[in-house]
Write a structure and sequence with these properties.
The complex is a heterodimer. Chain A contains 10 helices and no strands. Chain A is mostly helical. In chain A, helix 4 runs antiparallel to helix 8. Chain B has 16 helices and 17 strands. In chain B, helix 2 packs across helix 4, helix 11 runs antiparallel to helix 15 and helix 11 runs antiparallel to helix 16. Classes of the chains: A mainly alpha, B alpha+beta. At the A-B interface, helix 6 and helix 9 of A face helix 15 and helix 16 of B.
């Protein structure tokens, strides 16, 4: 089965409207913008978990907003992209933004994520990993938040460069 | 009138080899020592003090051992009953707990001037409430404790003279600490009391032993000297084991079966410096020179190497002696060793403790077992250092959120309340006991080391894992602090992995 992002990419190749509609959906609560339904619902195949539904709509919107013709480079996890952005821009506020993002609850998440993705225009983002992480956002052990933080600080500090991830976090 | 003679009355608590328990007098304890598995009392201080007392008796009764040959002969032939019986008969009169002339281990001439100066018996029982040492869950009223059996009083008397802590004015002068009161005392345990006593009976020079008299053979110290604060050097081991650290007088009330009041004041100060107590291990301090090993905040097992003999001769002589004696007779090597004592802070007892360790069987061989065990302990310390560094980094980031450097004291206090370090040590401690038991002559050190490194790695990983699990549910600042902190632990784990890979036997390539 193809992944969600591949699904969106395929749609994008066939239909020029896709990205515009999905981008526009970001102005609404995830899953509340009716014109986006034809692009996401077929992939959801009747999924009734509201969190999963919401996150798929959200990621679809973010993907569309971030899409750039002929983007180069391997997609990277969001934590790593933030670290790269902070290193390149030398802006101390990125870390704070990132921490705030990690502390977000379900209501705050779409807005904060949209802001961060907006900053990361230059970087290829692994949206598939982003989606996987978001699906587990409310996990009791905050595995997603831990893993994103690990990505961020591992690439920020050269001194902790070793393979920090344990098997547990890999198999999120 | 003389009451309660310690040679005949039952007062030494023993456990027999068949598991039954009783209390015995001095004569029976010594003569039946092969039937007795151990001296057992709820108080570690009483246990070790009674051993020291019996050892002092044996030195005098046997007039030896004065050299290793004599010690070996004793170990081979056993304790000579006739000599012990004869000695006890000769000094029978000095073992009355209540006596007008020579009450045992007391100062008969001392009587408090005022009625109110008589104290209740808890004054000599370290494990009960005293004026400056409150014990949780001990509900004895200090001022009116009521009577206590004389057999108990006799035990506390011996323990008190061994472990009295200085600090505080008494009827005479400021009280001083008994010679070895603050050290951790070591007792190798033989298969029965007989062996326990013999392995600790370290030979003493013939000339020294001739004049080395226990308290019951000495003439009473004049009251005037005691009042002026007398100090004198120790004559030898026997003198040291029966030191008069406090001037105590039991008040006879009734038929001597119970004690309710006693007088209590400063005793004799030990002026010798550099005396070696055979039951103590020593370490060399840069500033103060040779110092006895004490119970500290950290577990004594982390200093276990200091209890094992090597060329520096800082280890307890009793362990050294035990290993020499059992070299010719492996079946009778002490299987374990007790370390007993108290930790004090400014004249107050912090805690008393009895720890039991397996005595590595390899001790009787020619290996450098002290160096080997020191290496194992150092590896544990090194690994803990990485844990500590990680904790410090975590504490700093949690306290400051990256905005400022928090106060060092705050960081330290934060790290101390984190359970991860104490969990690490307590888990490794039980593994260390296992390792000691496996330390036989046949085992290769590299095998033992590999096994130990695996334990260290596992414990370190689990300790940090537990901390991570407890934190990862916290807010993003906690997660941030955690992620930034774990570098040292992960580096150490990698190091341990590499080291273990080197030691592990290589798998055959098929």
């Amino acid at each position: 089965m193809s992944t969600f992002i591949e699904w969106l990419e395929n749609l994008n190749e066939k239909d020029t409207k896709v990205r515009a509609v999905l981008r526009r959906s970001l102005a609404f609560d995830p899953g509340a913008f009716v014109p986006a339904y034809p692009y996401v619902e077929p992939f959801l195949k009747g999924e009734d978990n509201s969190w999963r539904r919401g996150m798929l709509y959200l990621v679809a919107g973010l993907w569309a907003a971030h899409w750039l013709q002929g983007r180069q480079g391997a997609p990277m996890p969001i934590g790593r992209a933030c670290a790269a952005y902070q290193a390149a821009s030398n802006s101390a506020s990125t870390e704070r933004r990132f921490i705030t993002l990690l502390d977000s609850d379900g209501d705050q998440l779409p807005h904060r994520l949209r802001q961060i993705i907006g900053l990361l225009k230059e970087y290829a983002i692994d949206f598939e990993a982003l989606l996987q992480g978001l699906l587990y956002w409310n996990d009791d052990r905050k595995r997603t938040q831990n893993s994103w933080a690990r990505d961020f600080y591992r690439h920020l500090n050269t001194e902790t460069e070793e393979q920090l991830t344990t098997q547990e976090e890999v198999s999120l | 009138m003389s009451q309660f003679n310690l040679i005949d009355e039952k007062w030494i608590p023993v456990r027999f080899s068949d598991g039954s328990r009783d209390e015995l007098g001095i004569r029976d304890t010594l003569l039946r020592s092969k039937e007795i598995a151990a001296i057992e009392d709820p108080s570690p201080l009483v246990v070790v003090a009674l051993h020291r007392f019996l050892l002092a008796l044996l030195y005098r009764a046997l007039e030896g051992p004065t050299d290793i040959e004599q010690a070996k002969a004793l170990f081979r032939d056993g304790l000579p009953s006739e000599k012990i019986t004869a000695y006890l008969e000769k000094w029978q009169d000095r073992f009355w707990l209540f006596d007008e002339g020579y009450p045992f281990y007391q100062v008969s001439a001392y009587e408090p001037q005022e009625k109110k100066e008589w104290k209740s018996w808890p004054a000599i029982a370290a494990e009960h409430n005293a004026n400056n040492a409150k014990v949780l869950f001990d509900h004895i009223e200090i001022a009116a404790a009521g009577p206590t059996p004389s057999r108990m009083a006799a035990r506390w008397l011996v323990a008190c003279q061994t472990f009295a802590l200085g600090g505080g004015n008494s009827d005479f002068v400021y009280t001083k600490t008994a010679p070895s009161a603050t050290a951790a005392m070591v007792l190798p345990l033989g298969i029965h009391l007989h062996d326990t006593l013999l392995v600790s009976l370290v030979p003493e020079n013939k000339e020294v032993l001739a004049d080395d008299r226990p308290i019951w053979e000495q003439e009473p110290v004049p009251l005037a000297s005691l009042k002026n604060g007398i100090a004198r050097p120790a004559m030898g081991v026997v003198d040291l084991y029966t030191w008069l650290a406090r001037s105590i007088t039991f008040h006879l009330d009734g038929n001597g079966e119970t004690l309710s009041e006693l007088a209590f004041a400063s005793g004799v100060e030990c002026s010798s410096e550099g005396y070696i107590d055979p039951m103590l291990g020593y370490r060399i301090d840069d500033k103060w020179g040779r110092l006895p090993i004490q119970f500290r905040h950290r577990g004594l097992w982390r200093d276990f190497d200091s209890l094992l003999p090597d060329d520096s001769h800082l280890a307890p002589k009793v362990i050294e002696h035990a290993s020499v004696l059992s070299r010719s007779n492996r079946d009778r090597i002490p299987r374990s060793v007790l370390v007993l004592g108290q930790a004090n802070n400014k004249a107050k007892i912090e805690y008393w403790r009895m720890e039991r360790f397996a005595l590595p069987e390899a001790l009787t061989g020619d290996r450098f077992i002290r160096t080997e065990i020191r290496q194992l302990l150092k590896e544990a310390e090194d690994a803990q250092k990485s844990l500590w560094l990680a904790c410090r980094s975590y504490a700093r980031d949690i306290l400051s959120r990256g905005e400022r450097e928090p106060d060092k004291k705050d960081i330290k206090a934060f790290v101390e309340q984190m359970p991860v370090n104490s969990w690490y040590w307590s888990t490794l401690e039980s593994r260390f006991h296992d390792i000691l038991r496996e330390y036989t002559l046949e085992r290769d050190f590299e095998d033992i080391r590999c096994q130990w490194l695996e334990s260290v790695r596992g414990t370190l990983k689990k300790a940090w894992g537990q901390h991570r699990a407890s934190v990862s549910m916290g807010d993003a600042w906690a997660i941030r602090a955690l992620v930034k902190a774990e570098g040292p632990v992960l580096r150490k784990l990698k190091e341990l992995n590499d080291e273990i890979a080197k030691l592990e036997p290589r798998k055959e390539v098929l």
